[in-house]
Amino acid sequence: MHLIIQTDGGARGNPGPAGIGVAIFDEQGKLLEEIAKYLGRTTNNQAEYQAVITGLARALELGATSVEVVADSELLVKQANGEYKVKNPEIGKRYLEMKNLETRLGGKVKYRHVTRDKNKIADALSNRAMDQGMGR
Question: Is residue 9 helix, strand or coil?
Answer without folding.
Answer: strand
